[in-house]
Amino acid sequence: MPLIDIDALHKSYGETEVLKGIDLHVEAGEVIAIIGKSGSGKSTLLRCINGLETINSGAISVGGEQLVEDELHLRKLRLKVGMIFQQFNLFPHKTAGQNVMLAQQVVKKRRKAEAETKAREVMDRVGLGDKFDSYPDQLSGGQQQRVAIARALAMEPMALLCDEVTSALDPELVGEVLQVVRALAADGMTLLMVTHEMAFARDVCSRVVFMHQGRVHEAGPPSEIFANPKTPELRAFIGMAAA
Ligand SMILES: Nc1ncnc2c1ncn2[C@@H]1O[C@H](COP(=O)(O)OP(=O)(O)OP(=O)(O)O)[C@@H](O)[C@H]1O
């Protein structure tokens, strides 16, 4: 059974249907890039998987458990998938380490010592072992985003959803964050990432999903999607992205 199973997902905001029947099945260990024009529904799809948005119809399950919209269930589901956003959303008055410890203590009810051990382990994993006691404003944007990744990893999610995690960064800081994501992929983490980094999608992802007007318009391995796009919409998008 796929780790993330999405069937006939529909999502509207008011009268506007943003997701028009999405089917997507993600196996454990897959690294999927979601690409498409602004407004095609990419972020909304991730937010639905994480239970941040209610859905109108269809079904989403993670780890074999179906998303149903009662609060307790949604909270459990959010624990199974981590999400990383364009903005890092760190608490400015807490150190990097405390930021990584906090959700563990509040949500997972870990004791302080246990949360700290885990926080040190994941800070090491993102290459920031020496920044445990630094405050966010003492860190670069790339380092802050790596703290946000560490914070998600500390919750031991079954999959990570990444929503344009490099878009807010200065160009010279993009590489270090992608390097961390690349290492997670190599370690077997299941990743679903909305990205504008086409070279990264081509090199690292096992599958590329092209969204257009609320639907999965074309999907396949990067070799096919980039070298042999079948639809005019994908051809136009790739042409635009390369420009
Ligand atoms: N909370 C909301 N209320 C109303 N409309 C929304 C809301 N969030 C998104 N939308 C609309 O839904 C559509 C899809 O938005 P979404 O952010 O999912 O697209 P996207 O493909 O991720 O775009 P981008 O690349 O610009 O982030 C857009 O037309 C957007 O204006």
From TrEMBL:
Annotated membrane topology: Peripheral membrane protein
Residue span, ABC transporter domain: 4-238
GO cellular component entries: plasma membrane
Primary subcellular site in the record, as a coarse category: membrane
InterPro entries: AAA+_ATPase (IPR003593), ABC_ATPase_HisP-typ (IPR030679), ABC_transporter-like_ATP-bd (IPR003439), ABC_transporter-like_CS (IPR017871), MetN_ABC_transporter-like (IPR050086), P-loop_NTPase (IPR027417)
SMART domains recorded: AAA
Domain of life: Bacteria
PANTHER family the UniProt entry points to: AMINO ACID IMPORT ATP-BINDING PROTEIN, GLUTAMATE_ASPARTATE IMPORT ATP-BINDING PROTEIN GLTL
Protein name as it appears in the record: Amino acid ABC transporter ATP-binding protein
Organism of provenance: Thioclava dalianensis
Lineage: Bacteria, Pseudomonadati, Pseudomonadota, Alphaproteobacteria, Rhodobacterales
